[in-house]
Predict the 3D structure of the following.
Amino acid sequence: MSESLIKIEAIINGEKYKAEKQAPRENPTHPDEIVGYAPVNTVEDTIRAIDVAHDTFTTWRETPIEERIKRMRSAIQKIKDNTPEIAELLSREHGKALYDSEGEIGVSLMWMEYACDNVTEVLKNEVQAHDNGKTIIAKDAIGVVSAITPWNYPISLSTIKVAPALLTGNTMVLKPSPLAPLAVSKVIEIIADEFPPGVLNMVHGEAEVGVELTSNPKVAKIAFTGGTDTAKHIMKAAADTIKHMTLELGGNDAAIVLRDFDVNDEKAMRRLVISNFLTAGQICMIAKRIYVDKSIYDQFVEKYMEAANKWIRVGDPFDENVTVGPVNNQKQAKYVQSLVDDAEGKGAKVVKLGKILDQDLFEEGYFMQPTVVLGADQNDPIVVKEQFGPTVPILPFENDQHAIELANDSIFGLTSSVWGKEEHAIEIAKHIQAGTTMINTAAIQGLDVRFPFGGVKQSGVGREYGKEGILAYTDTHVINVPENLDLPYIPE
Ligand code: NAD
């Protein structure tokens, strides 16, 4: 697959659907190279996909759970069999290092398996016999789900939605991001092939396709991962038809380093560095600002740089020595650079981290040298905004209470982490406003698909992963069988 040009089509009703227009996807490592083409679907194509998903829903929701699981397990096996090729394609179109692409597919499979293993129990009717008869509490499928996903983890953030939605009896139309549309489409093709036509459909395109997916009256639920600003448009688009919604949005995750953190613990320090720079910092749950107790600040910065300089090796995603690839697209690279420049212009010190393994390649692609920003202010854009790239500010704090205040001083609340002696760290964690707080680790290193994941404040609505991530695709349906059928206070 490595050098061939990939051409993707939409999938509607189990068939490849030819769009009139196609958009190229470049390779961020070698921007002159086109990796492949994805369709630019129209609003009409999107309506067609939604209609098909809507028509298929009534039969799919009645399909026995055992059959749904069997089909999903078969898809899992086929994705496993094709992992090397899919990972390679993902690295070419995305820019993430090959180990990182393989890791993303691994986490996706882990979740899909978890969903298969647990869906039967989650959907089990609860039957309550009580003093007035009995009540059955059932979990019903919701209907057509529109799934809209971003470019940074295209496969895991799609399968996180597809697996529970289909297993619980919903049908779906999924739209990947145009900035990494190819590898995820291969995965969706595999899954769609295992299911009856119309159960899983896929369209591609930009905002106008997204607007149809989020406003069409036949869509019952939106499962969106992406930026907070886009989510605001989506909420408005969905308001007229009161849709269910799971929103996984931006974050500005704080890492708090306590006075009892051992700066000489090389493994812990490396975990922290990884939690800042994995996938070139383009992860919603990356640690995006570090706060360090002022009593250890200087030693911390010195040891942090040592660890960062060791772990960060920037270069070709296919070079096995490389840990950090290019940024996914030029717009993002420019945005991250503008935040760094702004901080530097205001007097902060910007220190370059790691090694550039191939200078010519570095200049050719959308590479950025990872940096740490020292001396920024809490109100500077580099601290307030979600940088989503390879740079991180480090700020000192006065005491634990101050650290909590700084961490909570954000419109976001996705994940966070506390680094130090376990009991102390847990105590601090309890006061942080976030969907997840990890102790002595952060980002994907502390992720566990068995537990719910999502944000508070403007980082999101609802949860993915865990049993909650399956339940999110169901509605509660109460079947009440009362013994006393007449209410005594209503006159005859
Ligand atoms: P984005 O919001 O620009 O795009 C996400 C998706 O929405 C894309 O498929 C895009 O085409 C589509 N879209 C754009 N405009 C739309 C509209 N008006 N209506 C409907 N859909 C529309 O996000 P991005 O740049 O692709 O991804 C980066 C963002 O995603 C970051 O903010 C990151 O934090 C967030 N993210 C969050 C999580 C999480 O789990 N919380 C995970 C990964 C990424």
